Amino acid sequence: MPRMHAIELLPDDAGTEVVRRDWQALRDAGLPSQLDHRGATNTPHVTVLAAPALRAEDERAAARVLGPLLPREARAAGVALLGGHRVTVVRLLDVDDDLVRAVLDVRAEVPDVQHLGWLPHVTLARRVPRADVPAVLEVLGHADAAVTLAGLRRWDPDAGVAHLL
Questions:
Q1: Does pTM surpass 0.90?
Q2: Confidence class of residue 76 from pLDDT cuts 50, 70 and 90?
Q3: What angle (nearest 5°) sits at the alpha carbon of residue 47, between those of residues 151 and 119?
């Protein structure tokens, strides 16, 4: 399976800190955390789309359509589990309809997007054994938080770099 290129929304500094607190709380509890990911480009983000390749026109379209909508507040609410035997733990984001429509417009123009539809979320941990899920939920608690989505970047796994759009 090819590595996926991505367009991502980035939270502002305060939103990044909200997510990093969750990452740190999981690590402090001895649980899997995105802090375990040592890549230089590992930072809180919301994936708009992932595809085997992205064209320059895809980047321009994302910047043109999504850029004017930023910054945009989202509410980090609820935790969800994605996957099977081992799960990815995410915090779901409530975003307004204008942003959802814009993301869907951008996604419609990109060939071979990885997933149907868009589920706005921030990843907190990957490959969590199902037996650890109760402990994860206990650590993360039930509080909601506001996160301001303020930037847009493109992740290129072939070059190993992310750049702002």
A1: yes
A2: confident
A3: 120
